[in-house]
Amino acid sequence: MKVSDILRVKGNTLYTAGPDEPLARAIELMAEKDIGSLVVMEHGDLIGMLTFREVILCLVKNGGAVGGMLVRTAMDDHPLTCTSETELDEVRRMMLDRHARYMPVMNQRMLMGVISFYDVAKAVVDSQNFENRMLKAYIRDWPEEGAPAA
């Protein structure tokens, strides 16, 4: 299974922020849309990721206030990325190694979407459930021993 399979099911709604936007506005957008990350774009290029992890770290550093801080000050400026052709097993390994919950999907320099650890886990579980149903159906239809082959 590839990342493109997840994106096909997930859809292509993307939420972005600019690096010079107020951090408070980015947090409001994340809360309003019930999302855990924003892709930070500048001049059409991915330059970072803002996730709830970066927001929390920023709040802790600043005594619980964001004040006039900008997205640039809180974002991860070296986000982990993959392509739509990356195999799901590789994405899982990458996300686990870096403790990443969100990963932008890039084809060349074009942002194709963002996948979350939840999306990856759901795809794996759905695939295993399908395989389990197919195996059970195969076993149910197994010919009895001594029965003539059809």
Please describe what this structure looks like.
There is one protein chain. The chain contains six helices and five strands. Helix content is 45%, strand content 19%. The protein has 150 residues and is α+β, with helices and mostly antiparallel strands. The longest helix is centred in the last third of the chain and has 24 residues. The model has no long low-confidence stretch (mean pLDDT 89). The chain has a single domain, classed as CBS-domain. The two termini are 34 Å apart. Strands 1-2-3 form a three-stranded mixed sheet. Strands 4-5 form a two-stranded antiparallel ribbon. It is elongated, with a radius of gyration of 21 Å.
Write a concise synopsis of the structure shown:
By secondary structure, the protein is of the alpha+beta class. It is built from six helices and five strands. The chain starts with a helix and ends in a 10-residue tail after the last helix.
Q: Which helices and strands occur, and which strands form pairs?
A:
Blueprint: H1 3-10, E1 16-17, H2 23-33, E2 37-42, E3 45-51, H3 52-61, H4 71-74, H5 88-98, E4 102-107, E5 110-116, H6 117-140
